[in-house]
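Contributing new complexes? Match this layout with F0G.
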Amino acid sequence: MSDLAPAAVQGSHQELALPVRCMSCGATHDGNHPITTCPECSGLLDALIDTSRSLRPDAFAATPGTFSATSGVWRFAPLLPAIPAEAIVTRWEGNTPLYADPRLASYAGMDGGQIHVKHEGHNPTGSFKDRGMTVAVSHARAIGSALVACASTGNTSASLASYAAAANLPALVLIPEGKISTGKLAQTIALGALVVQVEGDFDIALRLLRDLTADGSVYLANSVNPFRPEGQKTIVFELLDQLDWQAPDVIALPGGNLGNTAAFGKALGEAYETGLIDRLPRIATIQAAGAAPFAAWYASGFDRYEPVKAETVATAIRIGDPASADRARRCIERTSGWVVSVTDNEILEAKAHIDRIGIGCEPASAASLAGVRALVASGEIATDASVVCVLTGNLLKDPDAIADYHLGGDETRRSANRPVSIPATMDALKRVVDDAIRG
Ligand code: F0G
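Output block (do not edit by hand):
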C-alpha cells in the first residue's frame, strides 16, 4: 500500500514538504516537526494545500491496493497534506453513510425540502474524530514523535487512544473529571490511553495541555493542530461526492471547540477553488444554549467575544472558550452562514426523533437537526431547501443520556419508550403482543 502519492504544494513553498501558514500574520512555516502555533505571532496555523489547479471528481477514484481503496479520508489525498505513505496509520475510517428520510425534513418543518444526515457515528471509534486522527497520528509518526496527547470531552480521547495503539505510540489524554460520558471514558481506558482526570472543565484541560506541548516534546493532537482538521475536511468532500458534487443549500453541524466548523470552511473553499463545486453551501453551526460563546459572538456581529462557563447535557460540546473560534468565524463569514444555539430540551427531543426513526446518534449530534428546525422556524432556512445535518457521534457513546430520557420518569419526554415488565406467563406476553399490534 505504498503508491499513495498526495499532491505536493506547488510554487514558492515547494521546498517545504508540509507547509503551514499562520492565519493571523500570513507567515509560512515548515510543518515537518511538531508545530501548532505560529512561532512569530502565536496565531493558529492552516496546512497549505495547492488549489491552483482544477480537479475533477475522478481525482478521488479509489485505487485497489492503496489506502484510497479502504479509507474515506486518504481517498481525498489530492486535497490533503503530503504525509509519506509509509507513516500513514489508518483504520478504514470514513466512507460513512448519507441517509435521507422524509421524517427528518418533516420534523424540521421542511415538508417541501430534503434533509440528509451524514452519519459520522459509523467511523471505527464511533465519531468523526477518526477522520482527523488518521492524519494527526500519521503526521506524528512521520516526524518521529514519542508521545501523542489531547484534551477531550470524550470522543477525541477515544479516537486518539485507538490510532495511537495502531501506531504503537503511547497516548496521554486529559479529561475534565466527572464530565464525560461513561461510555467514552470506558472506551478510552479500554483502548489503552493514559487517562488523566483534571479537576476542572475541558477549557482548563486544553490550556494545561497546550502549555505542556508548547516545546514540541509531546505531540498535541487537538484540532488546534493544523493537520487534524485536514482529515475532518473529508466529511465535506465525501458528502459532496455522495451528492454527485451538487452542493446542498445548507450544511449543519454541532459546534464545540469549533475545529470542525473551521475544517468545513476550509474544505468548501478548496472544493470551490478547484472547481469541484460551483457554489458554496451555507454552514449552520449549532451550539448548546449553555455553551454558546460562538453564537453570542455571531449575534453581536462578531464584535464582542466572551468565553462562558459551559453547561449542557450534550457533554461533547460542553466547551466555554473554543480554541478555533477565529478560524470558525472565517468559515461562517465566507459561506454567509449562521450560528445559533438550541436548548438542552430541543437537543434531546431532536435526538429522540433521530433515534426513533432507526438512525440514532449521541446528544451533541442532534443539535444539528434541532438547529435546522430553529432556522426553518425563524425563516432563515427555506422550507424547500436541501440540507445536510452532520451526525457527529454514535448512539452508544452516551447510554446515560438515553436512560435519563427514557427511564427517568419525566412525563414531559414526548418520545419516552419505557420497557414493560411482565410475569413469565404466556397470557401476560400475549396481552403485550395484542397491544403492540393494535398500536
Ligand atoms: N460532536 C461531537 C460528538 C463531538 O465529540 C464534538 C467535539 C463536537 C460535536 C464538536 O466539534 O469541537 O470541532 O466543534 N468533541 C471534542 C472531543 C471536543 O474532545 O471529543 P468541534
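Reviewers usually confirm one structural detail per submission. For this one: The two ends are 54 Å apart (CA to CA).
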